[in-house]
Amino acid sequence: MTDQTATFTAAAKAGADIANTRKVFIKTYGCQMNVYDSVRMGDALASDGYVTTDSMEEADLVLLNTCHIREKAADKVYSALGRLRDMKKERAANGREMMIGVAGCVAQAEGEEILRRAPAVDVVIGPQTYHRLPQALKRARAGERVIETDYAVEDKFEHLPKVDKAATRLRGVTAFLTVQEGCDKFCTFCVVPYTRGSEVSRPLAQIVDEASRLVEGGVREITLLGQNVNAWHGAGPKGEAWGLGDLLYRLAEIPGLARLRYTTSHPRDMDDRLIEAHRDLRALMPYLHLPVQAGSDRILKAMNRRHTAADYLRLIERIRTARPDIALSGDFIVGFPGETDADFEDTLRLVETVGYAQAYSFKYSTRPGTPGADLGAQVEEHVKGERLERLQALLLKQQQDFAESCVGKIIDLLLEKPGRMPDQLIGRSPWLQSVNLDAKASQIGDIVSVRIIAAGPNSLFAERTER
Ligand code: 5AD
Ligand code: SF4
What we know:
Layout: E1 4-5, E2 22-28, H1 32-46, E3 50-52, E4 61-66, H2 71-93, E5 99-103, H3 104-117, E6 123-125, H4 133-141, E7 146-148, H5 156-159, H6 165-171, E8 174-178, E9 180-181, H7 192-195, E10 200-201, H8 204-216, E11 221-225, E12 233-235, E13 241-243, H9 244-251, E14 259-263, H10 272-280, E15 287-289, H11 297-302, H12 309-322, E16 327-334, H13 341-354, E17 358-363, H14 381-406, E18 410-418, E19 424-428, E20 434-438, E21 447-455, E22 460-464
Parallel strand pairs: 2-3, 2-4, 4-5, 5-6, 6-7, 8-11, 11-14, 15-16, 16-17, 20-22
Antiparallel strand pairs: 1-2, 9-10, 12-13, 18-19, 18-21, 19-20, 21-22
């Protein structure tokens, strides 16, 4: 999870009179769903006459799309708001307006508290209500301090403008598409069920329509998003019960859509149909983010994960049988309350057994309102630090081993964006690695056959081969 400054300069730039239009700068924190939401907020604002800018200086509206998953993430928001308050004051002294909005999960979780702690904020808007952003800004301009954090009864997707093909073309050849939101699993460490609400799946027709629009706008690879994406369920064309596996088979039929991915999954929702999709669909990339969080059954139980380490390992085996070249990725938490050295050793053992191509790991962070916050036996900070260091060293070694194992392989590469050098492009391997290749900008969007010739610390290097 990394901060990503949203540079969705696309939305309404085309044809807009830049000088007379309001400009919005959107800063995105946290997960990929926030990245998707930032794009869609940009779309909602475009219909209200805003263009997106990647310069905070020239923005009339600065919107922070925030993350509440760990304490550090939430703290960042308040320090950013401190800096924005000073900027707003300075602007006011020069007679120029500047509005500040807080969106995303901190907005949802802290609502009023934000208005209290940060008097410069004009609008607080939650992840389920951002289609109301234009109205909220109008109210704020009339002098109100607006807070919109109820779980809206209407479906925000129905109220957002449809994905615009021209804007999509400017955004690139890969895209996110939210298909499911919220979570009913209630892992005891996690705020998601409280910030994003309970599980909701978007209907099939809406998803197929959005995916088709993205593809018509030049997108070659779509990553389906959900906090618990494999809990997606819906009605098929004849009203039959469909799961994520069925959805993937359907989306794989869209002409021109070359690659599909999905994230994030819960081990309990990996059903047979989904595993079959990994076996059958060429478009479904051999990469799976399947968080396990910990390797000790005692801790898994305390986390309310509702599976054991052995269940997870058996599942991995089934997935690997269906798709032998699949690369696995995961999330881990160290220092959950009550975690002993022996529990932590179980996590290391599980990592050794699975062999991850990539992973994220975190120190447990107490989140107010979650059951974990009320547990005794909190693990000391320095113990968490030591465990995290050991775990990350092991995961990094696995990641490097995986990258090295790719050297010499011939793979399909989706050329995505310009590289650091002229006439160099960066592409994505099927396993989500960045790969550098000498190629012309006109080839962006092509899928080419390459041989991996070297592995660097963060990316691979490749040369062209004949297909
Ligand atoms: N502390 C630390 N890590 C957390 N995650 C979720 N909640 C917490 C928390 N309270 C991690 C989990 C999850 C990922 C998105 O963030 O590993 O899978
Ligand atoms: Fe959080 Fe668990 Fe739901 Fe994932 S499955 S969003 S970790 S409660």
